[in-house]
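Take a look at the protein record below and tell me what you see:
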Amino acid sequence: MRHWPSSLRALRHRNFRLYFIGHAISTLGTWIQQVALSWLIYRLTDSVALLGLTTFAALIPQLLVGPFAGAWIDRHDKRRLLIMVEAALALQALILAGLTASELIGPGLIVAMAALLGVLNAVDTPLRQSLLSQFVDDRQDLPNALALNALLFTLSRFIGPPLAGLLLAVVSEAVCFSLNAASYLALVIGLACVRQLPSQRASGSFRNVFREGMRYALDNTQVKQLMLSVMVINLTASSYVVLLPVFARDIFAGDARTLGWLWGAAGLGSLIASVVLAGNRNTAPLGRFILASAAGSALAMLVFAASTQLWLSLLAMAVLGFAITLCNVGTNILLQSEAPEALRGRVVALYTSTRFGFDAIGGLLAGLLAAHLGAPAVLLGAGALLLVYCSWAARRSRVKHG
């Protein structure tokens, strides 16, 4: 087997390489669509509240559907199921492109299409995550596979938003949506070429399978603490995504390219965090790093909210992207490293539903509050709230360990 550097060791597995290439192209298209949709909403409506509502509609299905999706995933052939979901995602992007090109798109349809995307992602995200263990033959390479999977997301986040900004300067939002639809074909082709490995499926009724996953999470102290941290971090820190178009246009007097650079700065920080995690072989210190990164997220939010200098805001975005990624991806690595194979889909689904569900709630609250209080004030409040949680969690950890 070909030798790979330690930080890329999961790529020595053929199945993971096929997935990695296809997912890289697909994720780039996803980020292009996300930026284009955000700009379309603000261009058509000038409504920060609608930005929050659309983000909420796209993410809340993760919280409502995600835990049930995990039980369903563990009872089926995951590879075939993922191919079907990717095809449905491509169709959603094509419909969105058609509605936009024909100028039929409006606030109601935007929210409806975002909700459809959210339902599909509520199945797609835990399904892809739980499949990674089948793409690597050596379980010791699973943490690296998870980190590289996150690296793809963050690299696309670094490249995709600035690219979307450049595209939006010369083509319409509909073209960006069409490019995203085409990008899903790469992952479908990669999955079709994967050599299927035997997998362990959950047996029993859907209700019993679901209850088994919930019991595992509720009876495990570490899982409960990790889920609480994910909940608070994404409720507060991740709300910046909804507010970025407001800062780009109203605070920095910019356009879609300014929005792309702000998003790209956060993507650069996420990329660095993913590289750090990919090179890490020891998962033991991750718990401490997660709490420290949560505090770093809070401080970065406070700096960004108070800044009127673009260079300082870009730096704060990079720190925020780094810290949020280390929190979320580090938690995912810890959870999947400990989860039994038969429970993997349900554990991942609980994690993704918590992460993206509270991201949705935070985004909705941020958008609604910003319409009355202003985006800087909302971000300041969210950062202060996260600092309070970090202080409480640190004291609780010191009491627990001595």
About this structure: The radius of gyration is 20 Å.
